[in-house]
Amino acid sequence: MSEPEIVELDAIDCRLEHQPWRFAEENADAIRAHWQKVIEAKPASFNGKILLLHRWQIVERRFHGAYLMTDYASFLAWRDFGAPGEPRWNCFAMAALEAADGAFLLGEMAEHTSNAGAIYFAAGTPDPSDIDGDIVNLAGSVTRELEEETGVSIADVEIASGWTAVFHGPRIALMKSVRSPLPSAELKGGIERFLAEDERPELERMHVVASHADIRADRMPAFQCAYLAHRLDTWNRSQRTG
């Protein structure tokens, strides 16, 4: 797979289009067998409805995309089988949480989740709760996932107007910069107190990324490592010139 590509965007316009997904229809037996293995390993897994991007384009720094609706079992099989069939993309929004000192805060996925031990920004696969009419509200997904996973609300952060898209194979991460007025140590402490009060948190602990040395390529996906390196380099340049 090629290196992740980073593209700055001014806006996003994504919508739902109701249509079948050939992969899910033609591989129903294999999907059921795969899902059985998933729930045997992670009994808390839930086969709900999710959204999968089936076409997109960028016009004048604006990302236009169309999603179809499928179920989580079909999506997971498609992902684990290597994204076969007609081009489709796992396109999701992430809350790139930044502290006042320029460090980033990411969460380690809890043991009961499908990505246990991986370290991510707060995010979630788009689902029906993100749909408003036919619009897929990814900005709303960012703030909802951030608050649900970390306890940090929209009132606690400054939200950037634009987006940063990171393209890597069948993944498109739409990163929204959200900045807290708190230093990283204080922000981390507050989030971990929130997690300790949750009986079944999605995140187990928080990680601070303040330099390239803190980027964990063994536990972070390549698209996220690329984004962090890009943002840290931008921060460092601004401090030198500021």
UniProtKB/TrEMBL annotation:
Superkingdom: Bacteria
Molecular function GO terms recorded: hydrolase activity
Keywords for this protein: Hydrolase
Name of the protein in its database record: NUDIX hydrolase
Annotated organism of origin: Labrys okinawensis
